[in-house]
Each structure stands twice: as C-alpha cells, then as structure tokens.
User: Fold this.
Amino acid sequence: MGQKQQPSSADPLSEPKKKRRVVFSNIDAGVEPSDCIKIYLVSKKEEVGTSDGFCISPVDLSSFFEEDGKIYGYQELKITIWVSSISFHAYADITFQGTSDRGKGITDLKSALEKIFGETLLENKDDFLQTFSTENNFISSVVSNGEKLPTQASNGHTSNFDGNSEPASSDLEVVRMVVGNSAAGHLYSHLVPLVLLLVDGSNPIDVTDPSWELYLLTQKKTDQPETTQHLLLGFAAVYRFYRYPDGSRLRLSQILVLPPYQHKGNGSYLVEMLSNVAISENVYDLTVEEPLDYFQHVRTSFDVKRLLAFDPVQSAVKSAVMCLKQGKLSKKTHVPQFLPPPEVVEDVRKTLKINKKQFLRCWEILIYLGLDPLEKHMEDYVTIISNRVKTDILGKDSETAGKQVIDVPSPHDEEMSFVMFRSQNDKVGGVQMDEDQTKTQGEQLQQLVDERIKEVKLIAQKVSQKHV
Assistant:
C-alpha cells in the first residue's frame, strides 16, 4: 500500500493549494398554481375522475398560495378539482412524486384549497360522489323558497352576446330571493368558490344583510318528467339601497353565468330581467358596481337597443346629429360637447332606470348610429369622442386651466381652509409639464380614444346592420 506523500516544507509553492468546493442545494423555484391545477365543473358522478367535465379557467389562483403566489416543496405535483354543478360541493385529487423543503418550506395544500372552497370541499371521494344523488334536489328546494319573476322580457326576446336575437327559452326561470333567507344564504355560501375563481376582484357578500337580493337563473330539467328539477345557469347579487323619502335604488354587485352556459344569451337575459324589476318596481335607477369590460359591453348593447326604441331619445339624437353635420368640428377652437338635454337624461332615468353615466356611454353610440354617410362625418365624430375622453380624464379646461388651490392657516377648521386663484402662466396646480411628459400624455389619451371608438363600432354592429 503506498503511503500518502507529504508536501515539502521547504518549497510551499511547489504544489498549488487545493480549493475547497462548496456545493449549494438548489433553491426551490416553486410552481405556479395555474400550471398544476385543473378545475372541472361536472354534472354527474361518471364525469369525476375523467376530463369529461367542463374545464374552467380561474381568474387568478396565485392569490390563494403563499406570499408570492407559488406552491413549494412538491415534485411532479398535480391537483385536479371537480366541482358539482348539482350541489356545488368540491373534491380535490392531489398527486405528487415526493416532497422536500428546499429553502421555501412545503406549502399546506389543504389550507390553501380551503381558502377557496371552504366547507364545500369534501375530503372523501365517496362522500363527494354521493352528493350527486343525495343533493339532487338542492337547487329545486332552494328556488321553491323564492319569488318566481315573470318570464316575459320587455321585448319578448333575449339577446345573444354575438348580437343575434332569439326567443327567450320557455324553460328558463328567474327566481328572486332575499339573502337574509336561510336557503338563499346557504346556496350563496356554496357559490362563493366560483365567485372567487371566476369574478375578478370580487368579495363575498354579507349573507346576513337582508338588503342583498339573489336573482337565480335556472332551467328546468326535462330528463325526469315525473319531478320538476332545476339547473342553475347563473345568478346576480343586487343590493337594495334606501332613497329618501320612500324610494330605493338597485346596485348590481355580482353577476355570473356558469362557464358551460356562457355565450348563449343567458347573461343578456338575466340583465334584461333585472331591468324589468327596476322598471316594474319604479326604483330610482339601476347601477352596476365596477363593471368589468366584458359585462359593460353586454350591458351597453342591451341599453342601446332599448334607447333606440325610446322616442324622446331619438328626437334628441336627430337634433345632435344635424348639428354635427354642419361643419368641420376639428377646425374649430371650441367644440360643442353634444350632450343630451337634461330633461331627456331625466326621462331616461325615470322610464328606463338607466343612470346618467351609463346613458352618456350609450349616447355616443346612438350618435354614431345616426351618422349617414358615416365616412363623411367620422372625423368630426372622433373629435367629439376625443374631447369627451379628455374631459373625463383631465377635467373641463374652461373650468380648471390655470387654477391653483393652496392651503391657508385658519383657527376654525384646518382641513377646510384653502384659497383658489387663477395663475397668469400656463402652469396648472403649480406644475409645469415638459415636452416629453406632454407627448406621453397625448399618446395615452389617444390610446383611450382609439379603444373607445373600437368599442362604439363593436356595439353598433351588434345592434344595427347599418354599420356592419
């Protein structure tokens, strides 16, 4: 056996000094929840364990996992969740090759999923499968406690999202329930997971507040003629505000059509039924809380159709269009705003329950529909929209240009003490924008104008064949 040689002490540089190698374990990069989670909406137990159900696309799963929205500590993680469209219970099948803490810990999957599904999440698969029979009448039992609304729509039709119109289905029902009712609160608690998954930025409503109302869009099942069963297609949550002295206002807070039943006119039908309620009960108006772009598109398309059949509005539109056709607005130093007369705004609110903000959006589309020939007057129309967008974003120049507000000390009320004056230069609020800032602002405003024009054209195509 050879002996290990000792380095010579006489010449320490004769052999290079060996460096110690330090090996770092790989830090867990985590996995995005959307990359390992699939969620299926299923209507029968045979679809559980397969991909036959309707695969839904959540808005954002990351908010339910860790601080940075990732899952840590698992290898080859796969989570499949089935949600019953009968009882809205859920079951999660979780598989993985192994777990290890690589510096980020191991995500508690059960806790994370319970944040979404709460008590509807069942741990045992057999218990979940049994709900398809034991909870078969869940929706029917709930709607039996509600008020069935008249099914006849205001115009006898329901509008598809693609702009077509077809007769309202005779087996559709809309049932209103006060959320203070225990049955309504129980149903909504089962719907909360879908609200969190599919409605961007939503929060659950307070099921103990009787001012909340649920409007359930259901369809009668025809496969079992001996018993009446209902399938839930969608719902809307509406808050009823008191308005002095003896009136009320309705605010639509949440609306959701379940994914398998979207793009079939069900959303438009539900909106129409809500409008009918507002009109029949003579509420002050019907508003929408922070509507998403897609829903705003559906809502505006529906309202424009109603306004096209409302004579007072059409008279005002004709007058505005005639004024627009008189000359090149883009060449004028002061462009009229082409707003509807105040009495028409009030008439629309009283009769159709459309609030002023929504009516003004529709008004722009109504003017566009009145332009003929369109190409000849499009430049002037764009000028109107551009001025409207600038007014919405920057305020009215005639009222704000050159004005400054400064605080002044007061012995009475410090928060209410200020002086407003008009400066003699081009500064607004004491801030002077340089050339680059002005250019950037102009580009951003133009982008908003382009988006608005695009939206106007899309809705115009849906409600009229004239500008297709």
